[in-house]
## 1
Amino acid sequence: MNRRLAAVGVGFVVVVACTAAVGARAHGSSPRRGVVIVSKGANALEIVDVGTLKVVGRVGVGTVPHEVAVSDDRRIAVVTNYGAHQDGTTLSVVDLDALKEIHRVELTNLTGPHGVEFFDGKFYFTAEGSKKIARYDAATNRVDWEQEIGQNRTHMLVIARDGKTIYTANVNSGTVTAVNSDGKNWTNTVIAVGKGPEGIDLSPDGKEVWAANSGDGTVSIIGTASKKVIATVDVGTKRSNRVKFTPDGKLVLISDLGSGDLLVMDAGTRQVVKKISMGKSAEGILMQPDGTRAFVAASGDDKVKIVDMKTLAVVGEIDGIKDADGMGWMR
């Protein structure tokens, strides 16, 4: 194992290059089409063949991982190792062809990494404990940018298609932050929403941001042009967790950690059209790229449920994922 201290303009990160990653386990082979699923209970990234819905590989990562993002070429995944008490300080970089952790990135001035998204060749992530968001460049193996958010529990983020605005859900502050770039500098606009915004997503047309408020059972809908709340919808959730638009923008899925239900909403009418039981503790949501299926983590049952988006019914499940949560599309 080699260690090197890499200086960046915003601080320092210690990068542990893992040719045989500490604590990493891998078995099986990379499937033709796969889903990667974070297993919080096993400290692992599970690789699932979407044809058979069977686990075909596992890669050990850091302590209590929560979320994962996959590069556009489907070769690299970055896992945020949140830690047991919002005290994690690492990212795990996984080679999806070799099925092994190739880097354990030590974040010396960023704690509680959580939400992560891939955009334009780099991975953007939240750092809850540090009240920041940051960017990891897999090509250089460095964290090359940070932005102070200054809100409590900056949990998830979503990025506009042009890359000029990043929206963050700040759970304990009851806010969403719109982080805007003019090409040189980044500035923050703080938007008050409901209680405990946790899940967040941007409509495919880029006109609305939906924030699911875990503390009061509502959804705050933000107009991206005005950067203001344009509607608040009471959806009656016990503890909203994630929000995901379908690729065509017609439906919105909301997982309810408290009830174990998946809510299906009509994006136009903003009405709940169906509730589907997922079991215990509905959490992460992944849309299949063609929009035909949704994968929903039922973490309390150690399963991921498969929902047919035409019939809005559960049509299958992936079993044996201990405390499943964040997911990514592999191929």
Note: The CA atoms of residues 146 and 183 lie 15 Å apart.
## 2
Amino acid sequence: MFNEYYRDLLEDIRYRKTFSSSQIVKRVLDEFKDIAYNSEDINNIIKTYIFLTPKIIELRPTSALLANSLKKILSGIVEARQKLSREVIVNIIDNVRREIDDNNHAVAIMASKRISNGDIILTFSYSTVVLEMLRNLVKEGKKVEVYISESRPEAEGLLMAEMISKLNIPVTVFVDSAIRYFMKEVDKVVISCEAIASNGAVVNKIGTSEVALAAYEARVRVFVLAQTYKFSPETFFGELVELMSYNVNSLVNKEIEEKIGVRVKMSSPIFDVTPPEYIDAIITEKGVIASQAVPFILREIYNWPLKIQDTNLIIKELARVVK
């Protein structure tokens, strides 16, 4: 029953029909609210959350925003177990969503202050918070131009370009291999990410590291827009952010595959890791920080020694709430 009812949600995550990390989190939170509203009782709500949470995180393991948001919701339910009700659960979800929106808003405002009138901005892939920053620039009356590559193999850069053009901002789209060619015309690189590791490394759509390397070579400043929900505290203890790969069928169709021959190995990673030395600043809701300051932000959030709850342990605690 569970698999059938939530198939659309899980397939949306599995096949990356939603590119933005913020958008997929909001989709999941909306689903969790619907579950709370439509379930017969509290026990059924909790059982459904216990079933869905590990599956959702497994399908998008790179998204720190998704994992941290779900952990906060489940932890909030555990803490409220003595006074738990449908309204309490919905309120916990709403608070997390409001916090994410507020954080993105703060990040976008701070980022827009780093952009000068007349700047040519290069961005990469699809980002909700970068779009919000660009809207702020329009409101502020700043005239900018945006360069963006296609971001293959899914080419979400084309969707991003469409959204930017709707803001009446001049936008130029080019093939990914032309990043270095266009970098000499760029004033600033502004990107978002899936996760920030404890050493300041940035996990984002495959090709981001080439963008940052080309910018570093051309002495163009690189800004990463990332609210602290995107910080991965587990990496402080040596855990790695799991990088996903596409199904290779997304690279070539069957006819081309047959022409290439069976001996050719195909690979299509989704994300890569950009070293912190290629990042000039990370813009968070807490302020603009250097990559080297990420461990201090983690300590501020989780105290010292870091008190990080494992998702599986939270789920076990949640299971005890069920009567």
Note: The chain is about 50% helix and 10% strand.
## 3
Amino acid sequence: MRRSMLLLSLLAVLAIVLPAYGDGPPVDGPYVGVDLGVSIPSNANYQSLVNVGGTGNPYGGYMFNRFIGVQGQLHFAFQPPDNNARGFNHAQQWTSVFGATAGPRLALPAEFLPSEFLTPYVTGEGGYFVGLSGRLPHSAPGFSVGGGLEYSLTPQIALGLFGRYTRTYMSPRPTSFPGQEPGDQGPADAQWVTTGVSFRYSFYRPEERPIPPPPPLAQAAPLPPVSRKIVLRSVYFDFDKSNIRPDAVPVLDEAVRILKQDRTLPIVVVGHTDSIGSDAYNLKLSQRRANAVRDYFVAHGISSSRIRTEGRGKSDPVASNDTADGRAQNRRVELHLQ
């Protein structure tokens, strides 16, 4: 019990400290998911009665920001008997246990990692468990701690690997019997570890703003032989992403048409971000956005030798980062023509 309280206390301290880091992370919102895998008895008394079994654990929760949330989880573990003739009633019956727990969930955001698609996390939950059959015919409180690593397939869907340690304060029955090793005798809390794969669905949607109509590039005057800047007003990016959105394609196609009017004009593609996240992470993100626009131009007939890319991160906003609309305007790409 003391160790579990220390673990939960540590998670609570981290829950207070982590949200203060960074520049106002967005609300992630509600999510649901499920863990599926194997259940392995981890203490001697329990191991003397059951073998490795399976587990299925649906869960749901709410992320208040990128760092901290709260999660509730249902636990169902089932273990086959140990195949030894012990001589007590129902010795060959499977053991199953059901539990419900809740507690904090902590995640490490993408700016701390080499990939924006990976998210490690830890959880610490307390609750109550009920033995349904076999060697756990009673109920008791307990706790479950663990974590995992998720890979985001889309902004909403993530697959991952998980591992958990669960302890419930009820001892398997019988506590002793003939032929049992001395070290396995006596009452001991049932403990097991689970590991496997996870699936999570988040209901969060990235911030979006109404897209203004593209500037009338088709009516622009011929490009003068002096430095000028074109802000691609409809080439915006989702939060923390660098892929070209479908609504940006008509604007980029029009820019390609104009750039083909002078096939020698050098181009500098400059990427920008909003203020959320660290300077180093946003610098890399802005460079990826600039590279995405460059790759689009090259794929549509603009020579790569004419194009230079530059990422400026969050250093040059065109609107206030205090509002969702302002941050959306700052997630942009500009063309500088020489």
Note: The longest strand covers residues 118-133.
## 4
Amino acid sequence: MSLPEAPERFERDVLVEEFLDGPEISVDSVVLAGRVEPIVLAHKQTGFPPSFEETGHVVDAADPLLSDEDMRAVLTAAHAAVGYTTGVTHTELRRTAAGFKVVEINGRLGGDMIPLLGLLASGVDPDLVAAAVACGQPPVTDRTAAKVAGIRFYYPDEDVTVGTLELDEALLPAQAYEAMLLTGPGERVLLPPRGSAWESRLAHVIAVADSADELRAALEDAAKAIRLEPAGPA
């Protein structure tokens, strides 16, 4: 009589996830008495496939998805499923061929300057919205602007050790709102998959424009203002 084979064992836990196709968005919402109201919708820019690393975000105050009934229904169902009734949230979704799918839902505002992009695009301040809700006050969510705001993160072409890294503000486009270096001399910058996308960022630029095309062109032009001289390979 032969004994059954022992089940295969792994040194680490295995996480199995569903592959979701389609563009990714994030939605910062205010939730009052179970009612979910989107205040900032950001289209995520990704790179370094197949990892879907975040390389930027674009927020359009007039984005038609803000009133999309299917997306709102998914948002409402997701909040109901986790029992979240009051506060602010950051929900990440993919718009797949089968509809909107929830990637994650968080009891916080978005990172990567997304709340600031929302303020610059629409005039709605997500930080003040969150504070009002926390204090039991009605939040102000009236839109007073109709712009397109975005942030882009800039990376080296390959793994490097930074020699000098400079930002020439004179070369920034007129649409630039903020530009900031994120690393400095002597730092080893490793691109995915050797490193992480956020650790390998050289700089970021935030811009505000009247259209998505104008914004895209401005963020492309902004790359000229970032000057990297490698000290050598990483």
Note: The mean pLDDT is 94.
